[in-house]
Each structure stands twice: as C-alpha cells, then as structure tokens.
Design goal:
Elements (H helix, E strand, L loop, with lengths): L4 H9 E4 L5 E4 L2 E4 L5 H9 L10 E4 L16 H17 L2 E3 L9 H7 L8 E4 L13 E4 L2 H10 L1 E4 L3 E8 L8 H12 L7 E6 L1 H5 L2 H9 L8 E4 L3 H7 L8 H13 L10 E6 L6 E3 L7 E3 L12 H14 L14 E4 L1 H4 L2 H11 L9 E4 L4 H10 L1 H7 L3 E2 L20 E4 L15 E4 L2 H10 L5 H4 L2
Parallel strand pairs: 3-4, 3-6, 4-5, 6-7, 9-10, 9-12, 10-11, 15-16, 15-18, 16-17, 18-19
Antiparallel strand pairs: 1-2, 2-8, 13-14
Helix pairs in contact: 2-5, 6-8, 13-16
Bound molecules: iron/sulfur cluster.
C-alpha cells in the first residue's frame, strides 16, 4: 500500500517513538520571531543550553514592528524591548536575524518560502499558529508554543502526535473574481472551525493543481482556522519552478537531484487517507465572514444565516456573533458599511495579492469615510511591488502604503481599529478584538474584495467592479 506525503516525511524525520505515543521528530527548519521566543531563549540561558543547529534556525521581526517608521527606539517601549531582546538573543545564540536593515525582514511565513528556506519534504516549526503556510511547498509545518520553541532551539526536535490525514479535493475551475482566499473560507465554512481537529489537510484537485505557489500558501495558511494541525499540497513542477534560484534553495548544481528527492515525497496514488472530502470549485463565490470565527462565512450574495440553520452545538456561538457584530439574521452582508480596509498579513500580503488588489484600486478612489492600509508581507514583496509601480496605484487611489509587518492582522503594533469600527480585512482571524480594539469588528475576504470594499465604502461584489 502507498503512503501519503505526511507518512513519508514523518518516517524520514522520526528519531524514535516516545512512551507517550508521540514521535520525537527532527525539525529541518526552525523559524523564530520576536513574540514567542524571549522566554524560550531565557529558559535556554537558565539551563545553560546552546543551539545545536544554528544553520537551521532563522529569525525575523514581524508582529510588533511599526509600519509607518523604523525609527528606533520604537515609541512603544514594550515593542522596543522585544526588538532589543531578539537582537540580543540572536547574537548570543548565533542565529541569523533578518532585521529591518537586512532587506529580507518580513512576516515569518512570507519570508521562509520567498528565501527558499522552506522546501518540499521538510519538517518546519515556528512559534506561530500559521506555520501551516509552509505546507504549500510540500513541507510538514507545525505551529508550536513557547516551551516547544525552547525544545526545538535546544534539540532541533519536537515531541508530537502524528495526525490523521484528510484529503480535500477541490476540482473543476474557479470563476472569475474568486480567489484562493475564497477557497479556504469556503472549506472552513463547510467543514467547520473544529472539523480538522486531529487531522493534517492534504489539498489536491484541479483547482489546487492550477494555483500558483502564493495561492497555495493562502489555502495552507488557514488550515489552522479549520482546526487542522497542518495543511500541505504535494510538490509539483509549479513548486520546483518557484524554488529554483532562491537564495537558500539548492544551487543550480544540486537542484536537479533535490527535485528527484522532493518528487519521491509526493503522496502515492494508492495512499490511504482517513477521510476524503470533495468540493466543486465552480460553486465557490467571493466569500465574506459575518461572525466571530472564520467558519461564519457566506457568499457575498447570501444573507446572514438564521440560528435554526446551525447544528445545536453551534447556535450559541452564532447568537454571540449576531450580538457582537450587531448583525441580524437574514440581512445581506453586501452593502455593510466599513470604516477600515486592511490588505496584508501572512495569508494575503504577497505580491500576487497586491497585484489583484491593485487591479481593483486603479478603478477608483477610497471612499471618504474609509481608512485603507496596504502592508506588504516582506521587504522583498515591497520592493517587487514598488518596482512594478503598485504602490503608486494604491497611493493614487487613497490607500496608505506601509512598511512590511503583521500590522492590523493582530494589531500588536500601532495599527489598530478604534472602538466599534468595521474592517474589511485580508487577514485570517475575525475573533473578537483581534484587530486591536476590544469591540472592533472584522470581515474577512480576499484582497481584491477588500480593495473593492475600500472604494465603495461598503461590502461589494468584486466581480461587478471588474466587469
Ligand atoms: S500576519 Fe497575522 S497570522 Fe500571520 S504571523 Fe502575523 S500576526 Fe500571525
């Protein structure tokens, strides 16, 4: 019987089975950022430990970094403290740090793939939930907690339970104006925010096969929002082409032999799965969240669902969502007035996202009552976008063009919603208070839909704007 990519990667990296039933798994790439690492480094120091594989460990700063200025010290003393701590820790433990002067700084899940650090068949760990992003390259990638960051720093290993594998086939073709973000929101809507608990999601089907690497990253990024431990796409010619020539990818001399090994890690045709789910790409519409988790999503032409339409165990959270969002069941999501538009994050802050949003932005001007931000996912994304003149399109349309970072995805920097503001956002979480105001409201959607909402001043169907 064949094996899935997850099986193959697991077996290639298993050091031993632990009495707990977990596997001690060797980690090929450890990515570190400023928020979840200070305590881990402190624990290393207290136990007099060193990092055995500094060449497999890379750090950046993303969550707290301001996007309007890089002037030090930062106005926020806590942010300045975190920045100083990661600078110091990387120096002390011999870890390469992509700081703001490196030309590579950015959101940890944007820079890993773009530098060619993330490769097929690899195990990846990072102290951040959305590490699943790296699965787009055929890696098995885990988000981990602070004590696990210490474990990986100290041993390059992780004690972890092997997940089951659910294959999710998205077949057919997407309609114009429907993007990878709509695909992932649709999957989470249908399978639920807890539907993936205990699973790795293997994404397949013609829609995924046709996607670019950046689109696959958007889909894998949000696996965690569907409850899955990780998500991945089997590597193929698109993956190999994407990696060729990247700074940390195998050199030209070794690239072809790397491709042979990467291709050997692809799931076998007769691999067994614990579950298989199918979707028709043609049925997916531009999708918008209306509630307080990413599963509370509807097509832009649909109405907010009635409580009776939910299973009994989801009604309470639906009632909570109506109240928090101040939405009544049965009302259309389209036409909802917004105050803020945010294009960015590790879900949708890549060059292709900015290109799609710019196609919309060039058709008009941001509505007078809307504050609109574009925050590139990394310095490399910013430079590439500026080389194409995308920043000029956004600025001319009334968007603010910011410096790279997580920004308003999590609002650990000064980019925050105020009061009950409603934000059309290309990020990944619409939890209560996620964007910096305890009462702020988030509507998740694709970057093109965010740009359309910014121009209209309200949720609108991007397909009409693109006609
Ligand atoms: S962009 Fe958002 S989800 Fe992604 S790493 Fe930053 S804070 Fe986390």
């Amino acid at each position: 019987m064949g094996k899935s990519l997850l099986d193959k990667v697991w077996e290639a990296h298993a050091v031993r089975e632990l009495p707990s039933g977990q596997t001690q798994l060797f980690i090929g790439l450890h990515l570190v950022h400023e928020v979840t690492s200070p305590q881990a480094f402190q624990m290393m120091r207290e136990q007099n430990l060193s990092v055995p594989f500094p060449d497999r460990t890379f750090a950046t700063v993303d969550h707290i970094i301001p996007t309007d200025t890089r002037q030090r010290p930062y106005a926020d003393t806590q942010a300045e403290g975190m920045m100083s701590a990661i600078e110091h820790n990387c120096r002390e433990f011999g870890i390469r740090f992509f700081d703001a002067s490196s030309g590579h700084q950015g959101i940890v899940h944007v820079l890993g793939p773009e530098l060619g650090l993330t490769q097929p068949g690899m195990t990846v760990a990072c102290g951040d939930s959305h590490t699943s992003t790296h699965g787009a390259l055929g890696a098995v990638a885990f988000g981990i907690g602070t004590s696990q960051v210490r474990d990986v720093l100290a041993t390059q290993c992780l004690a972890i339970q092997r997940p089951k594998v659910r294959r999710i086939d998205v077949d057919g073709a997407l309609r114009a104006g429907v993007y990878a973000k709509d695909v992932t929101l649709h999957i989470i809507r249908r399978l639920g925010v807890k539907g993936g608990v205990g699973y790795a999601y293997e994404y397949a089907g013609t829609v995924l096969e046709r996607m670019t690497m950046e689109e696959r990253m958007t889909v894998c990024n949000m696996s965690i929002e569907g409850g899955a431990r990780l998500g991945y796409v089997n590597p193929d010619a698109t993956t190999f082409k994407y990696l060729r020539g990247r700074e940390f990818a195998p050199s030209a001399e070794h690239f072809d032999s790397a491709v042979i090994w990467w291709a050997s890690m692809v799931s076998d045709a007769d691999a067994p799965y614990h579950d298989v789910v199918r979707f028709d790409g043609a049925e997916i519409a531009p999708t918008v969240t209306w509630g307080i988790n990413p599963g509370q999503a509807i097509g832009v032409d649909e109405r907010i669902p009635a409580p009776e339409s939910f299973p009994a165990d989801e009604r309470e959270v639906a009632e909570d969502a109506y109240e928090y969002m101040d939405f009544k069941p049965g009302r259309a999501i389209r036409g909802t007035r917004i105050d803020v538009a945010f294009i960015g994050s590790c879900t949708n802050g890549r060059l292709s996202d900015l290109r799609e949003a710019a196609k919309v932005a060039r058709r008009g001007h941001v509505a007078p009552h809307v504050k609109a931000l574009v925050v590139p996912g990394s310095q490399a994304v910013a430079h590439a976008a500026e080389a194409e003149g995308l920043h000029e399109i956004f600025i001319a349309a009334g968007f603010e063009w910011r410096l790279p970072g997580c920004s308003m995805c999590l609002a650990m920097n000064p980019d925050k919603l105020v009061g009950r503001e409603v934000c059309a956002s290309s990020s990944n979480r619409n939890f209560k208070g996620r964007q910096g105001s305890p009462s702020g409201r988030t509507l998740l959607m694709s970057p093109a839909m965010v740009a359309a909402a910014a121009l209209e001043g309200a949720v609108v169907d991007v397909r009409e704007m693109l006609k």
